[in-house]
Write a structure and sequence with these properties.
This protein is an alpha+beta fold and about 140 residues long. It is built from five helices and four strands, in the order αααααββββ.
Length: about 140
Amino acid sequence: MKKWALGVLVLGILLGSPAAAEKGQEGEALDAATAWIALVDQGDYAKSWQEAAEAFKKGVTQEEWVNALTANRSPLGQAMSRKVATKESKTSPPGAPEGEYVGIKYETVFERRGTMNEEVTPMRDKDGKWRVSGYYIYTP
């Protein structure tokens, strides 16, 4: 009897619940967003483009991306603090190809601008890895 109960417990842990799988998905997406936004924070805009999702790269060239961030993100200064405000799983965001997405909204305090909202949207790319497909920054 003990072996059977232990087997059921192990099977339950291995299979997990849908809620646990969803949390894992959001966790993977958050990890991808965190690594990607660190590149932006370091001013490595070209690398952030290289590490982005294929859909992202189809929408903007590397040169356009670097120029846009140089003009709009660099003047804000260093990110002094950043916290996740919301996370939302999506499958069909407007204007984007169908797929798995997690919209992550951050409240970020910048050195020269104060509090701004950043939205980073990782998606599961064709190879199964989570990569950023969208980035927006705006005043709250």
